[in-house]
Amino acid sequence: MANGGGGGGGSSSSGGGGGGGGSSLRMSSNIHANHLSLDASSSSSSSSSSSSSSSSSPSSSSVHEPKMDALIIPVTMEVPCDSRGQRMWWAFLASSMVTFFGGLFIILLWRTLKYLWTVCCHCGGKTKEAQKINNGSSQADGTLKPVEEKEEAVAAEVGWMTSVKDWAGVMISAQTLTGRVLVVLVFALSIGALVIYFIDSSNPIESCQNFYKDFTLQIDMAFNVFFLLYFGLRFIAANDKLWFWLEVNSVVDFFTVPPVFVSVYLNRSWLGLRFLRALRLIQFSEILQFLNILKTSNSIKLVNLLSIFISTWLTAAGFIHLVENSGDPWENFQNNQALTYWECVYLLMVTMSTVGYGDVYAKTTLGRLFMVFFILGGLAMFASYVPEIIELIGNRKKYGGSYSAVSGRKHIVVCGHITLESVSNFLKDFLHKDRDDVNVEIVFLHNISPNLELEALFKRHFTQVEFYQGSVLNPHDLARVKIESADACLILANKYCADPDAEDASNIMRVISIKNYHPKIRIITQMLQYHNKAHLLNIPSWNWKEGDDAICLAELKLGFIAQSCLAQGLSTMLANLFSMRSFIKIEEDTWQKYYLEGVSNEMYTEYLSSAFVGLSFPTVCELCFVKLKLLMIAIEYKSANRESRILINPGNHLKIQEGTLGFFIASDAKEVKRAFFYCKACHDDITDPKRIKKCGCKRLIYFEDEQPSTLSPQKKQRNGGMRNSPSSSPKLMRHDPLLIPGNDQIDNMDSNVKKYDSTGMFHWCAPKEIEKVILTRSEAAMTVLSGHVVVCIFGDVSSALIGLRNLVMPLRASNFHYHELKHIVFVGSIEYLKREWETLHNFPKVSILPGTPLSRADLRAVNINLCDMCVILSANQNNIDDTSLQDKECILASLNIKSMQFDDSIGVLQANSQGFTPPGMDRSSPDNSPVHGMLRQPSITTGVNIPIITELAKPGKLPLVSVNQEKNSGTHILMITELVNDTNVQFLDQDDDDDPDTELYLTQPFACGTAFAVSVLDSLMSATYFNDNILTLIRTLVTGGATPELEALIAEENALRGGYSTPQTLANRDRCRVAQLALLDGPFADLGDGGCYGDLFCKALKTYNMLCFGIYRLRDAHLSTPSQCTKRYVITNPPYEFELVPTDLIFCLMQFDHNAGQSRASLSHSSHSSQSSSKKSSSVHSIPSTANRQNRPKSRESRDKQKKEMVYR
Q1: Statement: the pTM of the whole predicted model exceeds 0.70
Q2: Where are the domains positioned within the chain?
Q3: Domain 605-666+674-704 -> CATH class
Q4: Taking the CA atoms of the chain, what radius of gyration do you get in angstroms?
Q5: CA 520/CA 516 separation, integer angstroms
Q6: pLDDT, tens digit, 9 for 90 and up, residues 776-800
Q7: Taking CA 1050 as the corner, what is the angle to CA 1044 and CA 1055, rounded to the nearest 5 degrees?
Q8: Cα(296)–Cα(475) distance, rounded to whole angstroms?
Q9: Residue 240, C-beta contacts closer than 8 angstroms, at least 6 positions apart
Q10: Contact 1147, 567 (CB under 8 A)
Q11: What are phi and psi of 1078, to 5 degrees?
Q12: Which of 202, 267, 1041, 1188 has the most CB atoms within 10 Å of its CB?
């Protein structure tokens, strides 16, 4: 013993010092040798720890040996511990074993007795029943009462026990708040007890401790008292006591709670089996579910696997720590080794992973035996659990977090059809540099994780874009993206889907889900079909007054195409105006240079300065164009009843009010601020518009004519990029008749005939059967149509409906007189057109030729060479998977028409007046009677005349475009082709040099207005968000005057309703329309020969209230040599000094002319010859006589004077 020492299997040469130092050694040496050997070997771990803690003794620096010879139990004078140094581990273990087996014995004994009692009672019951039968019914009444009393007593006892059991079950269940708190508290205390074990594991396995001075023992004692009470509740609530006694949590309590009480009694601590508390970690997933933290199956499974793996790992490490630091009992505990708990954790990990470095290993027989069995189970667990855990973590949503709102920064949520194409187009426009400081964060929400390309796009815009994986149909995902605090929610639609109705239904469900979660959120959604917009009105919280908008792609697409029938190229100009394009500078004098200068213009809004108050609209418009270099086309007007509406070029009768919002065409938002900063006192003499900035003087109101009505100014909109407040967001309302000067010449006949729909916005006729408007090929060939619109439509009985009503409505707007309406001829499958006819049967001048647009015979029958416009549409585009083939029908039809040759025996401008009147037209009507005349009016072309005809028809001048045989080819037929895939535009023009990778807006067909793709409408989403007035203005221009009232009516009846003409409905005709002004002849011909665009702008505005906003120019007009090319391109908002050429066509907003609807004589070009009168858009033309031809030449002054009286009144 003199040479023995403790600590990690080593010994000190001079004797190991324990907790009591040398006194322990002397005390141990007085013990009898036989007894000493047993006692000394019983606690190697305790002596080892004690020896290492006595570093101040001389023996602490001695050399350690692999085995200890004796064991010392630390003893102090303050702790009344066993003076003989005996180990008492068996007492702690015995308390647990007695508790476990004793309780198990009692339960089994109780069950046995209960079973025997039940058997005896069952047998006794049968005997009593036999006696009752033998004794008869007389004794039955006497024995019934005691039995009933006994049963009542048993029932009362059972009821009391059941109540206690139910109370205990409620207390330990997580169904109530008390139960959840108790369950969470028990788990937290179990983890706390495990932490105390980790702390105590650094001490010897068994040591003397004073309960009153050991703080950790006191805390552990309090925890275990609570565990004991909770064990009692669980025991009472258990239905099967035996299974409860054998379950894991009960076994943990048996081997952890009783030893604590023993340690208090013996004043010594044994680390023992306290590591079993780690098994409580298995319940970790249940606790998180009780707290509503874990909700998905994957997260629950992941936490389950982790908790089982970690609890098994920590528990096994505790057992190795116990046996290795204690040693084998049959070896007198002399083969122990000092291992810390964390070294045991490390040992089991390298064992489970089959690495086994060998630096730490088990020396005791118990430890090695345990390792043999643990390797079998642990290796299997490691091999199955770890890969599954890694898979679950790897499959965990990368974008499954939550959005954290940034103070002072708004965010929007974008959902729906999220693809690389849709997102890139959206971001390109939304984050364009021309917008003034877009301080908005974009949050994308989609249920499919992005691919690598889309992920790279998000990373490039990581400062303003975030992506989260989820669905707007899930309220939890809506909470993740903070939809309640979002500024708006934008829903993108799949424009290329095979089933548009299903796509619209999906987006409507998204709107319902979002509005159900937060009714006040502003929603802007894309819709494919016009008739599906009606379903949005069924949502109670849908309110367009609060900024909710539905962008119907079919309505706008066909509206753009319809406007191109009235003024070709307008679709391109409007599409470029609401799209954000960067300025591309080209030095060469090519058509691309002028086109791109116009492309850089966008639509903006800004409040007008008080310096404009009291001035008329044309005066302000001229001042803005000349001095501020801004083009104002419309204003937001507030009527006396405070209703706001948008008026496009309202005329000189309207005066600007305080706080009027103007709509401008400019290159960026900073330029538009000049209209707000302008001050007459400070900026009147400034010639450079860039110097017009905010001045320091007080805002004054300058006006000349009359005092305007004072209105409180609205909240200032700082730029065209930022949206207005919802309260100041006007929508398209009915035209106020009080704003329009009275016209005494309105036909009284209109009030007795239903010529317009109930709103007065569109021409209307009684519903017609489709058979009455069908033309056979022979009938069409006998009918000489001219100046009409041919619509080539591809579709069949299974095709999705395009919604042709949206194409016809703008062409039947009431701001056209009846004789100005272009006849519309549909060429296509009769099965498809029958499905569309229900929405078309109320419109006049519509005919159908059953056939196919690929048949040249059908095209010749409808005189396609004499039409004003040929529209090519397809309803089969989205049924093809290959995107390159989606437009094959439209491309083939376009190339087929261009390759056609026509006979010149009649001439391009002449047609036989004798022929078959198309169905749907009343030949007896004066508007439909044949009109003798040769020329369409060359000065004003509201899309009525073909530019080629205008150029050839100028009397007294040689045309710049030479007349040859090519004039009779189909290449000179005006047409517009709808495309789905932008890249297919390269196939429309075989003679252009466009790169296949060129963006659509840079291609020649789009610049010329001969191609239109629905993708250009994507920019409306961001434009509408920043300014919802832009969408209202666009819809006003392209739909012909659709109003919310009309949409509600169509939603109810799916058709227009006729109405009698009243002063109110007739006043709705007084609205602007788009026209094309020819400079080759007429009152502006003098400006066509090298004049300035600004002079034309001012003259048209002052003289005729016509607002010019662009030029439609021949592609090769800049060349010095004459060219045979008749292609034109669009120039948007040219500058003041822009030079004009005679062949230019000017886009303008023209006022409604009441006099044009009167007698035919008022339309005559000459008062000397009524036979040479021409009719705009006449459907039937006659061959003019020689006398008529001879009477054509007139002096320019005479023509100008007559046209001023005739057209621009």
Answers
A1: no
A2: 22-87, 294-396, 410-542, 605-666+674-704, 767-923+934-1013
A3: alpha beta
A4: 47
A5: 10
A6: 998 888 888 889 999 999 998 888 8
A7: 145
A8: 14
A9: none
A10: yes
A11: -90, 135
A12: 1041
